[in-house]
Amino acid sequence: MEVLTLNLLSRLYSEHDEHQVRLNSLEGILEEYTEGSKDEEFIKIFEEVCRELELHLKEEEEALFPTLKERMGEMAMPVFVMLREHEDMRQTCQRVFESHQRGEREKVKELCQYLIFLVRQHIEKENNILFNIAKELIREEELLELDGIAQRVRENA
């Protein structure tokens, strides 16, 4: 059986598409959850969103960002902006879990809407700006090697 080899950016683009599908599912169940039903379904979807998001963030932080920061040098501000947004996403996931445990459904809805917005705009910035910079600064062979790092991040999670 032949293994499909992706370069890192192809993997990250594909994962962004998968995140969009999960965000749509989360968005679709929020209203019913807020009205007092679909608890189990909501938490299952939300846990999947946060679990997959965390893996993806680690892939970027360990595989792409170090090389990109090195190549960009003093112009690496976009990477630092992405890292700040990663922390915001992590904190928002945690706040949703805490609010859910306290039964604060409206707060959960508000935080989920913020998380959905944050992740979507983050994906847009990466797809349209950061990954284009990476294509210019990182050779294809290196992107293949970096994908190996991303694979190990997932395997070790």
Q: Please, could you describe this protein's structure?
A:
The structure is a single chain. The protein is mainly α. The protein has a single domain, classed as nmb1532 protein domain like (Four Helix Bundle (Hemerythrin (Met), subunit A), Up-down Bundle). The chain has helices spanning 8-34, 39-72, 77-101, 105-137, 140-155.
Q: How does the helix and strand content classify structurally?
A: mainly alpha
Corresponding CATH architecture: Up-down Bundle
| Percentage of residues assigned to helices | over 70%
Order of helices and strands: HHHHH
Q: Gap between N and C termini, in Å?
A: 25 Å
Number of strands: 0
Described by the principal axes of the CA atoms, the overall outline is elongated
Q: What is the domain tally? A: 1
CATH level-3 fold name: Four Helix Bundle (Hemerythrin (Met), subunit A)
Beta content comes to under 5%
Mean pLDDT, to the nearest integer, reads 93
- Number of helical stretches of at least 4 residues: 5
CATH superfamily: nmb1532 protein domain like
Q: In short, what is this structure?
A:
With 157 residues, the chain is mainly alpha-helical.
